[in-house]
């Protein structure tokens, strides 16, 4: 364990000073591409500005004999591309127990460290994995003369990683966030599924039999296999001031279920998700941006709550300090997204115009009468 006084000191002489807060940049959609695939690589420059994050993937989904080509391809793309202010460049390196991880880190930080915002580390098992990457990154940053620390994002995709989730989140000031890795996590937990994310028709609840007739018609409802895991991840991230993300949704054609899964994660507190195919980009951007209706309602509550204390009635519902805090989450997110997304800025400005007038705060005497 490091002393609190040392936590924000660089881990190598000449390395940049660690950040005390994770920059709050939009990351609704983390778009994966394989830098060794010429067709995908060619599309990357044209995607700048259309996604919040472009992620050059070096790990799973890149063939073993293409690992070096993917790494070299990413270096080439990063050097040749201006990512502008609104699109970040991330990478997913190979697993720390693979023969490629060390070369991934060494090459990427020394060659394109000034362009890389976040390094995603797969199959993180505990704080020791983050400590290893943390020190190595500091040495490489010092060697490369970087002035800004590269942040670290861990994928939650082993049972051990789940058990150690809090210590992973708090292992380094570099920690930017966590993503759910449902495919590897399902395998590691020995879940009996064969899908990449999403739920399963066999995971359901059924209503009780009527008059003891167990064979009669009984409604069932499919449940979310990932509810516990996502909720756990959201709490751990919130506690440590870092960001939670859904991960891959592998059924590219089922855009409807993809949207549902993303929305569940958004409602539970995730800030973004991965897109594996261009068709998932707009879904992710739409779902992880609050709706105009929610923003308009949240603004009404903020206006109605005045100094933020006490209770008021709005549309027949009680609002108070706690519901105000929820509304502020929505309003602040809308304002942040408006700074980088002109279409959302317009949408949310229109929502302001459409906002119905706020009822005057209910006077204590009137509230008495309403009881
Ligand atoms: C499960 C655990 C994990 O680790 S998930 C993360 C790792 N997996 C990935 O990163 C997968 C990334 N995506 C892909 O490899 C492809 O999208 C897969 C799913 C294989 C589908 O590819 P394909 O059969 O070519 O799709 P398609 O014919 O519909 O493509 C249409 C055009 O779009 C392109 N495209 C496809 N995916 C991307 C992408 N991620 N980024 C940029 N471009 C993409 C295709 O190359 C194709 O281009 P064109 O029209 O032929 O010029
Ligand atoms: O890497 C992602 C996963 O689901 O596994
Ligand atoms: Mg995985």
TrEMBL record:
Residues 350-371 are annotated as: Disordered. One of its GO terms (molecular function) is lyase activity. SUPFAM superfamilies: Phosphoenolpyruvate/pyruvate domain (SSF51621). Its cofactor is Mg(2+). Residues 29-195 form the HpcH/HpaI aldolase/citrate lyase domain. Keywords: Lyase, Magnesium, Metal-binding. The keyword Magnesium applies. This is Citrate lyase subunit beta. It comes from Terrabacter tumescens.
């Amino acid at each position: 364990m490091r002393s609190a006084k040392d936590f924000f000191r660089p881990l190598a002489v000449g390395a940049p000073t660690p950040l005390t807060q994770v920059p709050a940049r939009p990351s609704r959609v983390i778009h994966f591409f394989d830098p060794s695939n010429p067709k995908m690589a060619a599309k990357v420059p044209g995607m700048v500005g259309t996604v919040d994050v472009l992620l050059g993937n070096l790990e799973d989904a890149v063939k073993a004999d293409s690992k070096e080509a993917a790494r070299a391809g990413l270096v080439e793309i990063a050097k040749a591309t201006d990512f502008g202010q609104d699109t970040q460049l991330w990478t997913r390196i190979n697993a720390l127990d693979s023969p490629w991880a060390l070369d991934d880190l060494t090459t990427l930080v020394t060659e394109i460290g000034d362009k890389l915002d976040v390094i995603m580390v797969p199959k993180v098992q505990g704080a020791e994995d983050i400590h290893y990457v943390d020190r190595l990154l500091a040495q490489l940053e010092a060697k490369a003369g970087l002035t800004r620390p590269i942040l670290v994002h861990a994928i939650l995709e082993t049972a051990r990683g789940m058990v150690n989730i809090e210590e992973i989140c708090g292992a380094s000031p570099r920690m930017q966030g966590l993503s759910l890795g449902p495919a590897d996590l399902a395998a590691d937990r020995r879940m009996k599924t064969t899908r990449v994310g999403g739920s399963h028709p066999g995971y359901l609840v059924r209503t009780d039999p009527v008059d003891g007739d167990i064979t009669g018609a009984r409604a069932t409802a499919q449940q979310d296999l990932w509810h516990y895991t996502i909720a756990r991840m959201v709490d751990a991230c919130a506690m440590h001031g870092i960001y939670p993300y859904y991960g891959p949704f592998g059924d590219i054609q089922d855009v409807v279920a993809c949207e549902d899964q993303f929305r569940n994660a958004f409602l539970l507190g995730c800030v973004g998700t991965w897109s594996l195919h261009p068709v998932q980009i707009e879904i992710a951007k739409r779902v992880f941006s609050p709706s105009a209706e929610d923003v308009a309602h949240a603004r009404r509550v903020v206006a109605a709550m005045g100094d933020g204390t006490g209770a008021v009635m709005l549309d027949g519902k009680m609002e108070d300090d706690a519901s105000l805090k929820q509304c502020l989450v929505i309003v602040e997110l809308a304002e942040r997204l408006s700074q980088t997304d002109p279409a959302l800025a317009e949408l949310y400005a229109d929502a302001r115009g459409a906002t119905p007038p706020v009822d005057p705060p209910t006077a204590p005497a009137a509230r008495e009468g309403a009881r």
